[in-house]
Amino acid sequence: MSKPLSDSEAKALRAIRNFVVHNGKFPSVRELMTDLGFASPRSAAWLMERLLEKDCLQRRPDRRLQLAPEPEQDTACARTVEVPIVGTASCGCLLLAEENIEGTLPVSARLVPPPYRYFILRASGDSMNQKGIENGHMVLVRQQSIARDGDSVVALVDDEATIKELRTTKDAVILQPKSSNKKHRPIVLARDFQIQGVVVASFPDPAQLADEERKDE
After folding, report:
1. How deeply is 71 buried, as exposed, middle or buried, from its count of CB atoms within 10 A (0-12, 13-18, 19+)?
2. I need a surface site. Which of 27, 50, 75, 113 has the fewest CB within 10 A?
């Protein structure tokens, strides 16, 4: 069981997790000071030391701090991170994914381990429904430029975002639809093509679920 945290320690830990997800790096003392609204870095430095003592943070070999892995046995309390929602990606006809943050969604810290950055896209279309990505689903994405064969990836094609299954050959990269709708066709690209991220999870839009529940009342 992890050591209990005070309210200020828990707030600092949430701020650190959110900073890592949004920026892909651990915050400096002054960056944490700013996020927490402190007037001086002393309080932020003290909270970092307390979180280090309680095994929420750990030191790397170069002495810099990083988040400690979530303890496997600690299942009594779910810890979340605010992941940004950055637009819409297509699972059919390609749609422009504008990199404007529409909002955030709390996601389990276990699904977004550091040091990667993460974001959420709203899926549009049905070309990935056989991989569990339905039209309107929220898709949690780990930002990275490489992936393995069979991964569901987010790709930019002609400045538009799409979600497809990655397949590679000796000479080309293939973005393969996985759909019950046979109208969708693969996209063939050169080997030097870079992906934008790998799909971690897909789930219904909580806002849409809430609307449906209100209609049923």
Report:
1. exposed
2. 75
